User: Fold this.
Amino acid sequence: MTATVAYRLTVKDEAVGVTVRDGAESVFTFDRAGRLFAAWLGERFYRRALSGRIVEKHTVREGPYRIAHRRTLDLREGDALLDRGAAAAGEAGDALGRGEAELVWSASVPASPVEAERLARSAAAFNAAAARADGRRYAEVYRPVGVLPPDQYLALVLQVTEGCHWNRCTFCAFYRDQPFRVKSVPELDAHVRNVTAYLGEGLSLRGSLFLGEANALCLPTDELVARLELIRRWFVPDGGPTRGVYAFLDVFTGRRKSPSEFEELRVRGLRRVYVGVESGDDRLLRLLNKPQRAAHAAEVVRALKTAGLSVGVIVMAGVGGDRFAEAHVTATLTLLNALPLDAGDLVYLSAFVEHPHSDYERAAREAGIRPLGPVEIHHQIRRLREGLRFGSRGPRVSRYDIAEFIY
Ligand code: SF4
Assistant:
């Protein structure tokens, strides 16, 4: 006997979901241009980047913690997933045409089965071959995107700058092969035109704007103002409310900005700034070759808050291995608890990933530092969480798994 297959199409302003139930349940999610960007198959979750990379994630219990395991699919596995998603969308579109699929409409425009079928057809066209062509177009409009904060994974990245102005932290390999470069205003204009044309209807998935790359906010304020005004003309031509603008800031690059300079950026759309504090322990910061001290980080965060901006503070758990574990936790909690953070802010606890052959690995090995294992890092994250004293009106505290990032 053949099992009955049930289909559901979920249409939202930003995305289209296809659910297939044939004994098990599979869910494929596409942007409105039809690009597959997520799938759940049983216990396994998949995310596809615009670059074409697909990462599979599942969690396994180890001691008291659930440890995430991730891997990048090889070409054959990726193609199979893409073809499976496209086939599911095609079958769901056919079933909808026959009146045999459930339609869940939560978009702001009135429900329309014809529109839902059109969206299903464009997802059905996004098979492995179409995805490869899309990945090639992506590579024409973007330089590699190194990393974003977790709440910005679905941002529209605008590469105001490329690379990292400093590029010498011992633990960081994000931009090693990419020289720092600032795009002129006309170049940025062309870049925004290209990325919006590339994304097409898929732009609706991108709820915020992120100024790439590592430290775009190191530019002088007048140069940033010119670029934010250009961005505003692109995305808010009628002068209405803008999608928020977000960016990283390091504590040491460029001239330090005053609260009134940050305020100039806020009135032009800047909403939240992410600061890589990493640790409150100055000795550990020296090992990382991060030319900042904890006190500088606190001053910068205060200036941002005075300007009315929201802040995302990032600290690493496990960095400095066994040698620094105690001092790192104690000094980082002292620093964090002294910051004027509130409910609009974020604290990210990022599990340290040691890159093989990095300057950090070499320095740590020479100093006889033992790296912490996954369970010890989880334990450190728990200590950091439990040591925060902000109360119920404090910042949201979340994990930051950089290994999960793809764009
Ligand atoms: S400033 Fe940030 S992006 Fe640049 S090298 Fe250091 S950690 Fe990496």
Q: What stands out?
A: The chain is about 35% helix and 25% strand. The two ends are 43 Å apart (CA to CA).
